[in-house]
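Thread title: Can someone regenerate the structure for this chain?

I was given the following input by a collaborator and told the matching structure tokens would be attached. They weren't. Posting the sequence so someone can regenerate them.
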Amino acid sequence: MKNKIPDGLLVKFLRTTAMIGGIFSLVLTVLIVVTYLQLKRADPLNTPALTRLQQQLQSDPANETLKQEIRDLDLLARKAFFTSQWQVRTGGYLLAAFLLLGLLSMKALEMITPVNPETPGGIPPDALKTRNARRQWFLAAGILLVAVVFVMAWFNHGQLAGSLAAGVDSAEPGAAGNNPGNTGKNTVLPGTPAVADSTSRPADTASAAGMAWTPPSEGELRANFPCFRGPGGLGIAWQKNLPVAWDGSSGKNIRWKTAIPLPGYNSPIVWKDKVFLSGASGAKRAVFCFRAADGKIAWTAEIPKLPGSPEQNPKVNSETGLAAPTLTTDGHQVYAIFANGDLAAIDFDGKTVWTKSLGSPRNHYGHSSSLILYRDLLIVQYDQTGAAAVIALSVKNGDKVWETSRNVKVSWASPILVNNGGKAELILAAEPCVIAYDPANGKERWRMDCISGEVGPSPAFAAGMVFSVNEYSKLAAIRTSPTPSVAWEDDEYLSDVPSPVASGGMLFLVTSYGVVVCYDAATGQKNWVKELERSVYASPMIADGKLYVLDKQGLMHIFSAEKTMTPLGDSPLGEGSVCTPAFADGRIFIRGNSNLYCIGNR
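Best answer:
Regenerated them for you:
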């Protein structure tokens, strides 16, 4: 049977497809090369306009308006750079796809075209040789183009890592310099959330320079209130001469109150003469420093949108909001994290030292676990749906020091740090277990399966025993030595928000529906039970021998922290609150729904 060249729809379709693949490949190649050359010429950190503004700032370093203009321009330049890089990378993928389409179409035409030169419709040998050579050149050119594009994308990525992730804050004088200490490299373990490259920012502080910075001593930590629930996150404050009576409406023992510019559910922290809070709305987020003496806002550090952070704010529960995690401080810098996983380190003059995106958290409330510090490590409990981890970052530049994946479910509890038998332990709670880690390297020390559900309360610790609780689960007392074991359990009174606190052989637990229970910490026997008939979200605190319990309506219930129930009075704030109080000698700081209060005996 004699072959005949098909001239039907299939041949026309293949010829058209091959032509489209070739034309689009050529157009994409031109566009990619042009975009790449533009990127090579453009330095997002040293544009003429940015350089001009930086020079103006040198002569007027206190000009906050000028600083904000620089930050805005810098952010636009970075966004443009990221968009162009995405265009080069995406264009490379499309080029490879169109080249492959053209080659496959040509190959299909070859297969259905007769090659017998004796047939009338066959291809002569010379024509066949020419066609094969043309196909080989087309293939070689296609491979070369794809290789060139991917090399450009690779070097473009290197330029990004070298210029953006190296970390420059163009809003500060001298910011155009390099920061070789921050490489922006992170090793993410399988099954853990991705951690985006950090953006370090030089500041005029010893902590950022990495020279004179030293961790605060135990005495300094106890003299201040550096994190959620005080030193170690344990619910114990060491301050004295604290007030037991006040009235926000009449002003009795209210030293000052100051409106908080942005909403948030994080609790105040205190270091000497400074009180810190954060707040966020859909369009803005910031860290605030209040003067402890008079409540005036000393400075506001606005946190811009970070490279690598999600485009949209996460959908959060109204009771969590976009700024739920409590900050922490080491006396040099203050550290904040927001609902979308963005972190910021700010020095005590209000200058942003570094920022980092941990990636969009996958949970239905938004991230709300508070931060804690161990020596020069900032520790984040990042337990998300399908990808849980505990991460330690350098306080100096935000670089990841270690990361440990966790086979647990989503959690909103915060970590605690304890001295257990002379060893520092980092303890976290999330279904199905309580786990202790070495805070220096993230290695697991021990674990105990004893908790279930979406965990909100943080653990408590005292005298070698860890206490965990969650609503619809159980209260468990874990004896950690010589080997971890459950000493006792109870399921009568359970909390889903307030964290328990243990001290002096007693465990105090407050349920979210307003029942205060005092247990014998060693045996689980109930010493006393008090129904407040009010809901409670703030965690109870022990300070100056007293138990402070703040309900959601803003009424503080005060008891003696003893085995016998002794009420010391109820004091109204004058507005609602869900935040845990912070303490300084002679003073209590409470974040209400709208205002920050300083309470002290007059």
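The first strand starts at residue 199 and ends at 200.
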